[in-house]
Design a protein that fits this description.
- By secondary structure, the protein is of the alpha/beta class.
- It has a single domain, classed as 2-Layer Sandwich (Nucleotidyltransferase, domain 5), CATH 3.30.420.
- Helix content is 34%, strand content 17%.
- It has helices at residues 9-13, 30-40, 80-83, 87-93, 105-112, 126-129, 140-148, 168-194; strands at residues 2-3, 23-27, 45-52, 64-70, 74-79, 99-102, 123-125, 198-199.
- A hairpin with a 3-residue loop joins β4 and β5 (74-79).
- α2 packs parallel to α4 and α7 (140-148) packs across α8 (168-194).
- The longest helix has 27 residues, at 168-194.
- The radius of gyration is 17 Å and the shape is globular.
- Residues 24-193 form the 3'-5' exonuclease domain.
Length: 219
Amino acid sequence: MIIKRNISKQTISELPKAFFPGRIFVVQTETEAEKAVEYLSSQKVIGIDSETRPSFTKGQSHKVALLQISSDDICFLFRLNMIGLTPSIIQLLENPHVIKVGLSLKDDFMMLRKRAPFKQQACIELQEYVNQFGIRDKSLQKIYGILFDEKISKSQRLSNWEADVLSDAQKLYAATDAWSCLRIYNLLQELKENGNYEVAPEEEVIQSTSFTTESTENK
């Protein structure tokens, strides 16, 4: 496999869309959270992401509304605006035996701590992890596009994550983001183990506007 260092926005716009293919469960009670965490705690690696209701008023901000955590085939959407950061969720975040993979995790955890204190363990930041594979683009959409030739839609990013009922489009968007982090990690781990990849030479690099770490806004 040839790994490109960068990918242009134009190229991404022409790629087919990627969607989480598994089952999605919305978690709205503490009991449901405990059952979800029981399953997730049995996994070796999980993908993680979060969503916050956007603010369009100066000076106004919101707490994290949704925490999505995915295995290869099941994604749980924890509605934190309804249940808060429960003891079972905190236990999972602090579990040293379950690897949590995400992008811009520092921002996610900073926002999550506004709901409750915790000390995360066994976390892998994709923006740093991809460096060893020569990937310079740091947004989730670009990393995924480079590796899978598919596009992660960002159409629901600014939707209301505190809505009484999440739409099917919101649920699929949230699940896809968490799962795609896991899928990226699994592929890179496989390539690392078998060595079956090459990094595109410098002269083939597609120019990018920025090589710096991108914030949660560009996830």
